[in-house]
Design goal:
This protein is mainly β. It has no helices and 32 strands. It comes from Dokdonia pacifica.
């Protein structure tokens, strides 16, 4: 609105010419309405005179952006709690803002809300208004959840398992009840088994449940296959260990100091091994390596040839120790324990027991140096009749 007056003629009337094209004549006041932002210029002359026109400009401004509003909210945390909230978030326009909620509240944030739709009208300093709506949803127990995790028992039959719980949603405070009677959030010292926890929200009365299984390894066990010493006093024994259960991998500590699963080149004796799995569970396995009661022994008796050149000799042997049955290999090809009807000479035998252990011996059968012979000499009798004076002499050699 522009007003004009004249000091020389207080009753003067004026003509107002605007750059918008509007002209008001014979008046003292001119008004432009419903303007947008911009620069407006008016030229004023005194009616009925030739006085020069007077110009005046005015700038109409507007806020940098229109007033706007968004709203955020939180739902009820549990059925019937009426604890929802809503907040108006204005922008643009010309602060400060005023608020008018559909429930009569006039603050930017309203609390203690029951499930419903809420409308807010925001008015800026220039009276510009904008409106939005927000919905508060009914509280549900579905947003209370509990998850569980477990640490398994380390060794079969132990009680060092654990179970942990994690609660999300709800309001709290929370209480816990486990199927084993525990009332803490996490539990320890557990044997293998299934455990269920129920969490209760002290504010909403909501509950949630979760089950976890604590497992354990199978029983750690071991067995030894024994290969005994074959021949008395040697080191041909071995022990082959088989381990099952527990948690692989395993380590081995033998009474000999060996750390391999199996051990070889053993003499007769008692042996033990401590097996440890990756969780530190241990077992001890014992075994005994045996050997024949005594070493393989061989003795023999020769029977010499009676008469030079004959085959009446024999060798009678006795075998003891080792592991029966025995086999025999004579130098003359015989495979019997004893040999007989043999001529004079040297004979050897190798005796082998059931384990392949051997012993040998040599025997000599003799005979008379010469064959038995006889030589007869005679002396004839005298010629005298009736005299018995002849003789014969036998000379025996050899044999």
């Amino acid at each position: 609105t522009v007003s004009a007056s004249s000091n020389a003629n207080p009753a003067a009337l004026f003509t107002f010419t605007w750059n918008t094209g509007q002209v008001d004549a014979g008046v003292t006041t001119s008004t432009l309405s419903n303007l947008t932002a911009g620069v407006y210029t008016v030229s004023v002359t005194i009616d009925g005179t030739v006085c020069l026109a007077v110009e005046q400009s005015v700038t109409v401004t507007e806020p940098a952006s229109p007033v706007a509003v968004s709203a955020t909210s939180t739902d009820e945390t549990g059925p019937g709690l009426n604890n929802g909230t809503a907040t108006a978030n204005p922008s643009g326009g010309t602060p400060p803002y005023t608020y008018a909620w559909s429930n009569g509240e006039t603050t930017q944030e309203i609390t203690g809300l029951a499930p419903n739709d809420y409308t807010v009208t925001v008015t800026d300093a220039n009276g510009c208004q904008v409106q939005t709506m927000v919905t508060i949803n009914e509280g549900s127990c579905q947003n209370l959840t509990i998850t569980t995790s477990a640490t398994n028992v380390s060794c079969n039959g132990f009680s060092d398992g654990t179970a942990s719980s994690n609660t999300t949603g709800g309001v709290g405070p929370f209480t816990y009840l486990w199927s084993n009677g525990a009332t803490t959030e996490n539990i320890t010292g557990l044997v293998a088994g299934s455990y269920t926890v129920t969490v209760s929200d002290g504010t909403t009365g909501c509950t949630a449940q979760s089950t976890i299984v604590v497992s354990e390894p199978s029983v750690l066990s071991g067995g030894i296959a024994v290969n005994n010493v074959l021949c008395f006093g040697d080191n041909s024994g071995s022990l082959n260990l088989t381990v099952s259960g527990g948690t692989f991998p395993y380590t081995f500590a033998w009474s000999t100091g060996a750390t391999t699963e199996d051990i070889v080149d053993l003499v007769a004796g008692d042996y033990s091994v401590v097996v440890t799995d990756t969780n530190g569970c241990t077992i001890t396995v014992n075994a005994t390596v045996t050997q024949p009661v005594k070493a393989l022994e061989l003795s023999g008796t020769e029977v010499d040839v009676l008469c030079n050149g004959e085959d009446t000799g024999s060798v009678d042997i006795t075998v003891d120790g080792g592991t029966p049955p025995y086999t025999y290999a004579w130098s003359n090809g015989a495979t019997t324990e004893d040999i007989e009807d043999v001529s004079a000479g040297n004979y050897s035998v190798i005796v082998t027991d059931a384990n392949g252990c051997t012993i040998s011996a040599n025997y000599t059968i003799t005979e008379p140096d010469n064959a038995l012979s006889v030589n007869i000499t005679r002396v004839d009798a005298t010629t005298a009749q009736g005299c018995l004076n002849g003789e014969a002499t036998a000379t025996v050699t050899g044999g």
